[in-house]
Specification:
The structure holds two protein chains of two kinds. Chain A contains eight helices and ten strands. By secondary structure, chain A is α/β, with parallel strands linked by helices. In chain A, the strands form two sheets. Chain A has a six-stranded mixed sheet with strand order 6-7-8-3-9-10, with helices on both faces. A four-stranded antiparallel sheet of chain A has the order 2-1-4-5, covered by helices on one side. In chain A, helix 7 crosses helix 8. The mean pLDDT of chain A is about 90. Chain B is about 80% helix and about 0% strand. Chain B is built from 13 helices and no strands. In chain B, helix 5 packs across helix 13 and helix 9 runs antiparallel to helix 11. Chains A and B meet through strand 6 and helix 3 of A and helix 10 and helix 11 of B.
């Protein structure tokens, strides 16, 4: 396979869960996808389609039962510092201040104190929290906590960022603003991002292309290129083109859901 | 008719300036109870009232001085005992027993708690002992202890240790077991080794529970030291109280009890300070 040049490449990936009665349930099946350097890719699909499971496999938390996953041409085996992971729960260490949370990964990696705090300051600035360095998580709003979470994942300068519904727990206004911010951060850091969400508008707004998954067992139903200009202001969500994309993906998912019910 | 008219007037002014009328009402209410001197110092005032009442009953010979002392009498005897050095000597004896026993309980308790919390199998294996010991008054072990190590310093340290160690183990263990799995997952995502995960996540994550365990343990250790001194000792506040009671010296009994109360309060307060220092991230 010619996967040396791609950032992330998945080849007929299958993920199964053991059931209590000894049988197995197939969560993801024959999943093929390629993400190139610098791309922003979103995965959407009906709930329970295995999109988070797939992201977990890329992160290295989830064993795959068949197929292969390559990161920078190397097969993925377990979790590693080359991937930065952001979950829906900010999961900040409550006993660490914002900056101490951000530098956690660097601390684990054994980076010197001076170096990691320099990096921490830089990232606080990037996510717009420079005046909150010494605040504890319980003194920050949900949006701020998620900014710290993103900064913490960025601190280790991962090769690939994995975000699993990172804004799902935020209120609608904060979520929209965070989407805008994420695009700015993505631009500033030249990161490659794989983003899982159930929010179609979010996927269309953020992505270069959206991967729509089928119902379980989840596989790629369609890859939808989002040909909207960048930078994308939030107003773009009210444009006809945007609404077309949204409707198109919505129809795909609804059809999938109905198939499942029948 | 006149009344009705007046009411109307009041209503009109209230309607015209609703915010001001509300404010004055609120302000009035505030000064009545919550801000008053009595409300602020109701605790000390109550204590003082009880003490004065007690002293009065004593002075008016309502109390048999054989069975109950009086506040002034206690103060006087306490002063005498302090000057003569008896009180300080006994207190030092008790605190020494307590200190060694409790520090040992804290160190051993936290270590065992961390290990049994981290390794689930060990925790399960240890659980029956913990359950048995937590439900038992550890003073029951005193005859066994004296049989093994005699009635000296070691016996008291050992009882203080046994009194305090189990709640510390239990709390530390459950603190580690109930860690937020999301936080351990974060450590894993950053490639932290099990040892690093333990140090950076389990230890600070379990800290609130560890401190709670210390607080329970400190109280039980205090019970342990006083009980041990009452039964097998020739010194210490516990011994002092038991001895004074045997000699029908009611004033001394009260002095001893009050010293124990004060020591207990001071120790509890110091744990609160420790808690505030260690868990400062919990304060808004």
């Amino acid at each position: 396979m010619l996967n040396g040049s791609s950032k992330l490449h998945s080849e007929t990936v299958e993920i199964t869960y053991p059931l209590k009665n000894g049988k197995e349930i197939i969560a993801v099946e024959n999943f093929n996808m390629t993400v190139e350097e610098g791309e922003f890719v979103c995965i959407v699909g009906p709930s329970g389609c295995g999109k988070s499971t797939l992201l977990g496999a890329v992160a290295g938390f989830q064993e795959i039962s068949n197929g292969k996953l390559f990161l920078n041409g190397k097969e993925i085996k377990g979790a590693g510092r080359d991937r930065g992971v952001v979950f829906q729960q900010a999961s900040l260490f409550p006993w660490r201040t914002a900056i101490d949370n951000i530098v956690y990964g660097l601390e684990i990696a054994g980076v010197s104190k001076k170096e990691r705090y320099a990096k921490g300051e830089e990232l606080l600035q990037l996510v717009g929290l420079e005046s909150f360095a010494n605040h504890y998580p319980n003194q920050l709003s949900g949006g701020m906590q998620q900014r710290v979470n993103v900064a913490r994942a960025l601190a280790i300068e991962p090769s690939l960022m994995l975000l699993d519904e990172p804004f799902g727990a935020l209120d609608a206004q904060t979520r929209e603003f965070m989407q805008l911010e994420l695009l700015r951060i993505w631009k500033a850091t030249n990161q490659t991002i794989l983003f899982v969400t159930h929010d179609i508008a979010e996927a269309v707004y953020l992505s270069n292309y959206v991967i729509v998954m089928t119902a379980r067992p989840g596989t790629v139903l369609e890859k939808v290129e989002i040909d909207l200009p960048r930078p994308r202001p939030l107003e773009i969500k009210r444009s006809n083109e945007f609404i077309e994309y949204e409707k198109y993906i919505w129809d795909l998912i609804v059809t999938e859901k109905q198939k499942k019910v029948i | 008719m006149g009344n009705v008219k007046q009411d109307d007037k009041g209503l009109v002014t209230a309607l015209n300036a609703p915010s001001t009328s509300l404010k004055t009402k609120k302000a009035k209410k505030k000064t009545t109870l919550n801000d008053s001197f009595i409300f602020k110092y109701i605790g000390p005032i109550t204590v003082l009232t009880v003490l004065i009442f007690w002293e009065l009953l004593y002075q008016l010979n309502f109390i048999n001085p054989m069975f109950l002392s009086s506040p002034l009498q206690i103060l006087k005897v306490a002063y005498d005992l302090t000057v003569s050095g008896i009180l300080v000597e006994n207190l030092a004896f008790t605190l020494r027993n307590f200190f060694f026993g409790f520090v040992l309980a804290a160190i051993v308790g936290i270590l065992i708690g961390l290990v049994t919390g981290w390794y689930k199998a060990l925790g399960k294996a240890f659980d029956p002992f913990l359950t048995a010991m937590l439900g038992t008054p550890r003073i029951v072990l005193l005859p066994l202890i004296t049989l093994w190590v005699g009635v000296g310093f070691t016996s008291k340290v050992l009882l203080v240790f046994l009194a305090g160690v189990f709640p510390i183990i239990l709390n530390t263990m459950s603190g580690v077991q109930n860690l937020d799995p999301n936080l351990t997952r974060v450590a894993k995502a950053f490639g932290a080794s099990p040892i690093k995960t333990f140090v950076t996540v389990a230890l600070p994550g379990a800290l609130p529970q560890i401190v709670a365990g210390l607080r329970v343990g400190i109280g039980q250790s205090l019970v342990g030291v006083i009980a041990a001194e009452m039964f097998v000792s020739t010194g210490g506040i516990g011994y002092f109280v038991a001895q004074s009671s045997a000699n029908f010296n009611i004033d001394r009994v009260f002095v001893g009890i009050i010293v124990i109360i004060v020591v207990g309060m001071l120790i509890t307060q110091s744990v609160k300070w420790l808690e505030a220092y260690l868990l400062k991230h919990r304060i808004d």
